[in-house]
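Box 3.1 — From sequence to structure: Single-stranded-DNA-specific exonuclease RecJ
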Amino acid sequence: MLESQSKWIFTYNESNAGNLQELADLNVSPIIKQILLKRGMDTAEKADQFLQPELNQLHATTAFSDIDKGVNRVKKAIEDGESILVYGDYDADGVTSTTLMVEALRESGAMCDYYIPNRFTEGYGPNKEAFREAHRQGSK
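Predicted structure (token representation):
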């Protein structure tokens, strides 16, 4: 097992104890209430919006610059039967988002695969050699 190279310093903010009262009516464990407070959800309303999200809370996709170009390119790749490669990440949210993207693309009719780099041999961030290899194998 790898030894941590970091010294973890845990901070406990006792001033949040008063805010726990705001979350008293939530039907969650005390530790979940503390996590919610740490993440800025210091009212029952904010906590409920986080715990019971609705679609209207999502960011408008139109706010992303050039999103239409990306959507059109993916649609064209699906229509033309091109191979799509989802370049993922190896942490928990990276694997989860890679899985969701691959499933969504496949349900849309895409010929799709994924690549998750090795953190130890390929490091962090995009890897030029991985992109070159994917292109050699037919991904555009």
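Summary of the box: Strands lie at 83-87, 111-115.
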